[in-house]
Write a structure and sequence with these properties.
Number of domains: 2
Distance between the termini: 18 Å
Structural class: mainly beta
Strand content: over 45%
Oligomer: single chain
Radius of gyration: 18 Å
């Protein structure tokens, strides 16, 4: 499985022009203490669509997600019947296992001589990471700092985190 790395986030209006693929999506806020999908507050569920053509992805929701209608402009609402949303371009791809949320403050570790050594850097509860690989009780992750109020905006950090500190926020996949 590969996860795209995006550039830009241009807001556009209008109908995506074929040929494109359309995938129905559901945006949601992960639930309570466990950050899982089943414990989420369903009042924040918002349906939408992901349109893809080659390396361009267009994400659309009919109504804005709580907290997302801010200066960054992400996922702003559009009048019913009028298509609009956020457009992204894939810059590169990272081979990965999945996306996880951080359950509690978790320190990065380095793997040295077969052992895991804690570093000073850490991620906080609710931060999102992409898991690249697992080994023993640890997962090697890629974290992109998305906090707009810090000088680290967009900075990428990789390292090992304790797997027990990671939560899969998505619903289980039905295998047919």
């Amino acid at each position: 499985m590969y996860f795209p790395i995006y550039a830009g986030g241009a807001e556009i209006e209008g109908q995506p022009q074929p040929p494109y693929s359309e995938t129905k999506i559901l945006t949601f806020l992960p639930g309570g203490a466990d950050l899982g999908y089943t414990g989420r507050d369903r009042s924040f569920d918002i349906p939408g669509a992901l349109y893809r053509r080659n390396e361009t992805w267009f994400i659309h929701t009919d109504i804005g997600q709580a907290g997302c209608e801010n200066a960054l402009g992400a996922f702003t609402p559009y009048t019913l019947g009028k298509v609009g949303g956020e457009m992204f371009t894939v810059e590169s791809k990272v081979r990965a296992i999945g996306i996880r949320l951080i359950r509690r403050k978790s320190y990065f570790h380095d793997l040295r001589n077969g052992g895991f050594i804690a570093r000073k850097g850490y991620v906080s509860k609710w931060d999102g990471v992409v898991v690249i690989q697992t080994r023993d009780q640890f997962s090697y992750v890629r974290f992109v700092d998305s906090h707009a109020n810090t000088s680290g905006l967009g900075r990428v950090t990789t390292g090992w985190l304790r797997s027990g500190d990671l939560v899969n926020p998505f619903p289980p996949v039905n295998k047919k």
